[in-house]
Amino acid sequence: MKRLLSMFLLITSVFSVNAATLVKAKADMTAKVISGTVDGKPFQSAMTDLNGTFILDGDWFGEPKDTSYVLELTLPESYTAIAESDRAEKTKYGYKFTLKHAKYGMMLGISDKWQVRTEKFNGVELAVYFSKENMQYADTYFDRIKELMNMYSDMFGKYPYGRFAVADVPYPIGHAHVSLTFISDRIVAMPFMTKTSLGHELLHQWLGVSVETDRNGNWAEGLTTYLADRLYEKQEGKDVQYRKAAIIDIMQNARQKEDGSC
Ligand SMILES: [Zn+2]
């Protein structure tokens, strides 16, 4: 009976591993095209070149149909790739990414600028994908991520993914995606990044990414700002000033109708 049960568990675990959608892709950096198969069906997509960096939204291999993906990416040796994932492995041909709880496909970034550093922290892989010039800030980023991951894990429970990665990109952005955040390569060195913005994007992994908002307002942005930007000021005894500045900001930007509603 025990043997039958273990055979059953083995068979079901094999099937559950195979349940993820398998994307096999090859990036042609000269033609700026990525192509391959999704569970055996062919796809092809153009890539936009941002001076050696390519960022592809989650639906680059077609309309997402699953929450669980394996991506086997073939890539020239001189390029590095990052994708929304719980696990990222370097392979003979390029990279393999695995993701259990996708939000919308798998966002993918490819660059010939990135160097990669990783660290393991409480079972989560932390990673920075920085240009050579920005790599000197890696330790500051790792230290701050660890400090805040502890704080938010105490507040909200275990970090929801297997990885948390920060990648610099050659355009202005600061946005949280599943397991990663892209930030402008020009602001990596700025003190506000590690003081405030990094923690804000990390907290979005719990609020807004793993637990999504619906169409009726964006509670995640409000709560994240409250428990990141405002909280860090409070820790320095400056929460009153923060609140005053926030109210002035809202009043200056609010478009009020004559009846007082916005
Ligand atoms: Zn935000």
Structure description:
The structure is a single chain. The protein is α+β, with helices and mostly antiparallel strands. It folds into 2 domains: 20-111, Immunoglobulin-like, CATH 2.60.40.1730; 113-254, Orthogonal Bundle (Neutral Protease, domain 2), CATH 1.10.390. It has 5 helices and 14 strands. The protein has helices at 2-18, 138-156, 191-204, 219-235, 239-253, and strands spanning 21-28, 33-38, 41-46, 53-56, 69-74, 80-83, 87-90, 94-99, 108-111, 115-121, 124-130, 163-169, 174-177, 180-184. The strands form 3 sheets. A 6-stranded mixed beta sheet has the order 3-2-1-5-8-7, with no helix packed on it. Strands 10-11-12-14-13 form a 5-stranded mixed beta sheet, covered by helices on one side. Strand 7 (87-90) and strand 8 (94-99) form a beta hairpin. The longest helix is centred in the middle third of the chain and has 19 residues, at 138-156. It is globular and about 55 Å long. The N and C termini lie far apart (67 Å). The site of zinc ion has 4 residues, from helix 3 and helix 4. Zinc ion binds at residues 200, 204, 221, 224.
